[in-house]
């Protein structure tokens, strides 16, 4: 068995050092030892590191607003723990604060353009998108990639309320934007007529 420092193990698994250290403190890492100097080493079998059956995953966590930022961090930790327990290799762990109805999320776009992963891990379907989940799944399947939804249970009342709020917000923003554009266009036309 070979050993590597906890910091390298964390990096190889797409985790922050603090998260890895917490796993160490909670005895959640196998084959680990601490030297008298305080250095933490994690043991591994060399053939496991080059196993072609290893699944490379991207963890995607999302919440709708800054007020839910604490929930976002807990969501990410739960997903990372899930991946480690399944033996997945975490390539990236990405957090985003944006509405599930927003079709212009830069971090989600970054994931969809990424080539170096096999599975996209999300906690609930609506964490990926409010609408069009099946379209995204179909496109990823064409690239030999999958979406793995960790929690398929639904809280329909909560989801319906969030959807309703998102729809109202989206339409309000569009209407306000259209009015602003119309006023701007009218102003330009008036200025042209005056000249």
For the largest beta-sheet, the strand count, sense and barrel status come to: 4 strands, parallel
Number of helices: 8
Q: How much of the polypeptide forms β-strand, as a percent range?
A: 15-25%
Mean model confidence by pLDDT: 82
Q: How would the global form be characterised?
A: elongated
Which fold name fills CATH's third level, the topology of the largest domain?
Answer: Rossmann fold
Instruction: Give me the CATH superfamily of the largest domain.
Output: Resolvase, N-terminal catalytic domain
Helix content: 40-55%
H/E element order: EHHEEHEHEHEHHEH
Structural class of the secondary structure composition? alpha/beta
Do you know the CATH architecture of the largest domain? 3-Layer(aba) Sandwich
Radius of gyration: 22 Å
Number of domains: 2
Strand line-up in the sheet with most strands = 5-4-6-7
Q: Spans of 5+ residues with little confidence (pLDDT < 50)?
A: 47-53
Q: Give the end-to-end Cα distance, rounded to a whole number of Å.
A: 83 Å
